Amino acid sequence: MQRRGVAQTNSEQWVQCAKCRKILFRPDFERAMRVCLHCGHHHRLCARERILLTVDSNSFQETDADLRSVDPLGFPDYADKLRKGAAASGENEAIVTGTAMLGGYEIGIGVMDFSFMGGSMGSVVGEKVVRCFERGAERRLPVILFCASGGARMQEGLISLMQMAKTTAAVSRLQRAGMPYIAVFTDPTMAGVLASFASLADVILAEPGALVGFAGQRVAAQASVGKPPANFQTAEFQHEHGMIDLIVPRKQIRITLTYLLEMFLPVEAPVR
Amino acid sequence: MQRRGVAQTNSEQWVQCAKCRKILFRPDFERAMRVCLHCGHHHRLCARERILLTVDSNSFQETDADLRSVDPLGFPDYADKLRKGAAASGENEAIVTGTAMLGGYEIGIGVMDFSFMGGSMGSVVGEKVVRCFERGAERRLPVILFCASGGARMQEGLISLMQMAKTTAAVSRLQRAGMPYIAVFTDPTMAGVLASFASLADVILAEPGALVGFAGQRVAAQASVGKPPANFQTAEFQHEHGMIDLIVPRKQIRITLTYLLEMFLPVEAPVR
Amino acid sequence: MITIFDFEKPISELESAIAELRQLAAEKGLDRSREIAELEAQRERLLKQIFAHLRPWDKTLLARHPKRPYALDYVRLMCESFLELHGDRLGFDDPAIVGGLAKLGCYRLVVVGQQKGRDLKERQKRNFAMAKPEGYRKAMRLFRLAEKFRLPVLTLVDTPAADPGVESESRGISEAIAQSMLTMFELSVPTVAVIIGEGGSGGAIALAAANRVLMLEHAIYSVIPPEGCAAILYRDPNKAPQAADALRLTSESALELGLIDLIIPEPLGAAHRDPQTTALSVRSAVLQQLDELSRIEPDTLREHRYQRFRQMGVYETV
Amino acid sequence: MITIFDFEKPISELESAIAELRQLAAEKGLDRSREIAELEAQRERLLKQIFAHLRPWDKTLLARHPKRPYALDYVRLMCESFLELHGDRLGFDDPAIVGGLAKLGCYRLVVVGQQKGRDLKERQKRNFAMAKPEGYRKAMRLFRLAEKFRLPVLTLVDTPAADPGVESESRGISEAIAQSMLTMFELSVPTVAVIIGEGGSGGAIALAAANRVLMLEHAIYSVIPPEGCAAILYRDPNKAPQAADALRLTSESALELGLIDLIIPEPLGAAHRDPQTTALSVRSAVLQQLDELSRIEPDTLREHRYQRFRQMGVYETV
Ligand SMILES: [Zn+2]
Ligand SMILES: [Zn+2]
Questions:
Q1: Whole-angstrom Cα distance, residue A116 to residue D239?
Q2: Which residue of B137, B141, C180, D272 has the fewest C-beta atoms within 10 A of its own C-beta?
Q3: SS3 C110
Q4: Alpha-carbon gap, residue C251 to D132, rounded angstroms
């Protein structure tokens, strides 16, 4: 698989599209929210970029930034990988959470960052997701999660598997509070994250071309009789199969989320 | 389609199996509950026979026997068909309902009779089914329904379509009361009956080989790309496709129902 | 493609004449307005005359008219906004049923409807609005969303029947229809169904277990297609017109029998001659129902809905 | 088929010797009971010695042992009665997951478990206990039945993983796993999960979101199969034994980490050497949990279950 997410930097002024390989003028590329102006390929965003592009200006207030992963099993190279992940992403963990305003509505928000250890879910990601849902239930905030993850974090062993159950339980909290939960699948949304809180949203949006699936492509192909279809494990495939409500180009995500909040959030009874 | 349900009478002593065509000694055949001793084909039973074979002796008390169909649309030949149905079945309508004991448990029971206008559901069948569920909800009785029907009764036009909604609504009444509802699909269970109250039971049993499906076989084949499988629209097909819990030979229906009642009905808290 | 039914033929002849005259006048720069006005008056008289005496079979043809507005046409013409949602979350997304979130007047709604296709390609894609189990399961998912967020539900019914094929049978089309009705009965939000075209048996009632059921004037609602009924009754599918009579599948009959609550009048010449006006009539009828229903308590709504269907049936006690 | 793992080899050699001696004694009518007793004592010593020092990889092999009792074996050996129910009511019935209504002591239960196949044919039919979406959807249907009739739920977990194939992906395997957990969290009846063999990642946790999670002594429970982990970690699937060490997938580790509640001891030589005794141990462990849980109020059960998983996770605050 090509490194589909990353636009190669050729110089300060120019970048190369990871898909069509065309050269793009960087200011244009950034203005297009890192969507290729030629082929429409949606390049990955880091968490902070996503937040900037999504919520109302200056409204984001980060929460739980003080949580750090430890190495509970003494797993080979885990401590090193955590350091490298922090360096690569500039974040302390694979998710940034907080509260913000979106289209004038107060929301709880979580944005995963694939550049921190492939967005994998260990104890800290699990805890931050859970706190996001719990905060939503307590303060009656809708929750919006941008997913980007290769799955559970193997380096925390069974503890990371338990994060699937823990985050799922927290979804049920928000549900009982009657608050909306909207998920946005970005490239990639896989395995343990897809098979837990991500798939349980009231409405699921996805960016075009995002990789979305359960098992690795090789494992899936080996376990199957026929050949996987060409668009296997893309957002488009999952949309065809009823798992995603809408494929939404990056530029329209903000307005789509706003419309959904407007539809779902309780308002005063209409005056007649 | 052969007249699969009916065992031909050759004489007082002998009958011919509708499926394998073998000749059977009538007393043996009746003792086997009209199941062919050679090929196991389950011949249709009329409602009264079914009740006799199912509930505890002398426990059946019929209800709503006083309801009669009318001809609300002035539909061609309907009045005549009603007369013929009554003559053929010895019943006033296509379902007999009541209360009874089964394995020592008090139940509400309804048994459809295919020999009355193909077990079709018009106003009276709908009303009797609804009363069965309502009685179950009010008196906290589990409800057991034996289905045998070609579908809605065309001769009552839209009124008969509404019986699908009406009986479905009544299922929700019983559900809210927390009382179990068990359906037994006998040959045939089709169309408007299958697509309403029949499919909504907590547990669904079926007799081997019963025809169970939505549309007529010809319509289904015409609307499909491939050829229907050999067992299309049999109880076995529906079982493979997750729509029926168990295929139960006629001899074991009583004991299976008793076990289910034992499992579902509230008992005193176990003593410890 | 222009479809002209027998009873529409004289009208369309007049319409052609009017169009020709207009063109001629424009080309030659002549004033033919008097003649045109006369022909138009004639057309109006003829329409009134013909539409005053439609037989159930004529209505069947109108309900199936290829130019008749479809569910998404109504959504577009009557709602302030609409966002379609997709998928049953079980492996499928059935294009024969569409649904989503709409604004209608002061209401936010979940709208679910059966959708026919306008051209051949879309018709095939939408399977002629014959929903498979996944269509009803998508509908149920949206109904549950409506319940969760306390949004009223509007369904737009327009289907010849549920899909009867092998695939649908193998995924439990009967169960899906039954569950769809059950889910509607369980809702505690206001629900309004409008039969906009063909209300075809189980496929239709699956989306019509609502607090209020309205019908467009020339829509039909039937337990069996007239062709199928004719095949059974007369052993001749060509006797569908007689079967349509026997089945009494018109809006007038449904209202008389107490099975629907209201007929929404169509413009003279039926909905396809003026979709805009038709949609506005639907809009105001639906808004009126919502105004009434939204004053009722959730549990009472459920109970009213139960009683609405509970009393349907005609029988005697001896 | 006889499977002898490396660490079991000396034992099976002794067992062969004992069997030979017995046969010889019987054939010749000789009394060799002293020699036999000696060999048996030796076997016992050896078993103790070997089983005192099992590595995580040995446990992995034991958990996958082809003679290990499977879900339906436990049901048969420990329940007074059982009626299997079938189908997800959505079009499928997955043989990889079995479920039904059982009596266990004074309890009536819903039992759901992953079921491996004993011979090649059954193994294929049951897809090596790798459930497809429909398996979890059948489980959910049975969970809801349990909730409705206030029956406690027992799950028996034994799967290498959920089915990862194209078919499962296309029907939403991820959604099914997530919904299965969610459904378990919503239950207000007591729920007990027992990891009886392989607790394979998402496929396992889907059935293990219970009030109490027990593990058989030699079962494993892991976020990833050791082979898969080795392929990533060492770029060599043959280094699975090292990966098993790193993953700490044994019952002892799970208990130490506070992720399970209890280890159910197996007979000397593991469950497959004495299924009957193992099943009775499972039975009494489950009954004890049910006795405790059935004293707790429904809402409290749900809250306890939430808190049980809520506190899982190891991190620091800076
Ligand atoms: Zn490009
Ligand atoms: Zn026979």
A1: 26
A2: D272
A3: strand
A4: 46
Q: Is the distance from CB of C106 to CB of A272 less than 8 angstroms?
A: yes
Please determine, for residue A43, whether its predicted confidence score (pLDDT) is greater than 70: yes
- Domain residue extents for chain C: 8-53, 60-310
Say how far apart CA C191 and CA C179 lie, in whole Å: 16
Distance in angstroms (rounded) separating the CA atoms of residues A262 and A247: 19
- Indicate the residue of B202, B241, B243 with minimum beta-carbon distance to D145: B202
Residue with tokens 């539900």: C153
Which member of D166, D202, D314 has the closest CB to residue A159?
Answer: D314
Q: Given a cut of 60, is residue B1 above it in pLDDT? A: no
pTM of the model: 0.95
Give the CA distances from residue C182 to residues B140, B166, B167, C110, C186, in Å, rounded to whole numbers and listed in that order: 20, 10, 10, 17, 6
- Its CATH class, for the domain covering D60-310, is alpha beta
Cα distance between residue C147 and residue C182, in whole Å: 14
Question: What would the mean pLDDT of B198-205 be, rounded to a whole number?
Answer: 98
Q: What is the pLDDT of residue A69?
A: 97
How many Å apart are CA B250 and CA B63, to the nearest integer? 25
C-alpha B131/C-alpha D93 separation (Å) is 33
Q: List, for residues A103-157, the tens digit of each pLDDT value.
A: 999 999 999 999 999 999 999 999 999 999 999 999 999 999 999 999 999 999 9
Read off the tokens for C128: 């002629």
A173-189 pLDDT per residue, tens = 999 999 999 999 999 99
* Contact assessment for residue D219 and residue A121, using Cβ atoms and an 8 Å cutoff: no
Taking CB atoms and an 8 Å limit, are C175 and B199 in contact across chains? yes
**Chain D contact for C133 (CB, 8 A cutoff):** yes
Instruction: Specify the pairing of strand B67-69 against strand B95-102.
Output: unpaired
Judging contacts by C-beta atoms under 8 Å, the chain C residues touching residue B191 are 174, 202
A29 contacts: CB under 8 Å, gap ≥ 6: A7, A15, A36, A37
Give the chains touching A; criterion: ≥3 Cβ pairs < 8 Å. Answer: C, D
Distance, in Å, from the CA atom of A46 to the CA atom of A32, rounded to the nearest integer, reads 15
Name the residue in chain B with its Cα closest to that of D106: B270
**What is the tens place of the pLDDT at every residue in B63-122?**
999 999 999 999 999 999 999 999 999 999 999 999 999 999 999 999 999 999 999 999
**Euclidean distance between CA atoms A248 and A251, whole angstroms:** 8
Average pLDDT over residues B153-168: 98
- Spell out which residues of chain B touch residue C60, defining contact as CB-CB under 8 Å: none
From residue A131, give the alpha-carbon distance in Å to each of A59, A64, A175.
19, 8, 14
Task: Give the whole-angstrom CA distance, residue A102 versus residue A260.
Answer: 11
In the numeric block, the tokens 């959505």 are attached to D90
D161 near D116, Cβ under 8 Å?
A: no
ipTM of the prediction greater than 0.90, yes or no: yes
CA distance A216 to A154: 14
Closest CA to C161 of C242, C62, C88, C64: C64
The tokens describing B239, both together, are 């079982």
What's the rounded Cα separation, in Å, for the pair A198 and A78?
Answer: 25
How many other C-beta atoms are found inside a 10 Å radius of the C-beta of residue C42?
15
All domains of chain B in start order, with CATH? 1-43 (no CATH), 45-264 (3.90.226.10)
Rounded-to-integer distance, Cα D174 and Cα D181, Å: 11
The minimal CB distance from D175 to the residues A70, A152, A199 is found for A199
The secondary structure of D107-145, three-state, reads EEEEEEEECCCCCHHHHHHCHHHCCCHHHHHHHHHHHHH
Looking at chain D, which residue has its C-alpha nearest residue B243?
Answer: D89
Helix (H) or strand (E) holding C238, with range, is none
Contact in structure between B97 and B63 (CB atoms under 8 Å)? yes
Q: Where are the alpha helices (DSSP H) in D271-310?
A: 275-293, 298-310
Are residues B91 and B68 in contact, defined by beta-carbon separation less than 8 angstroms? no
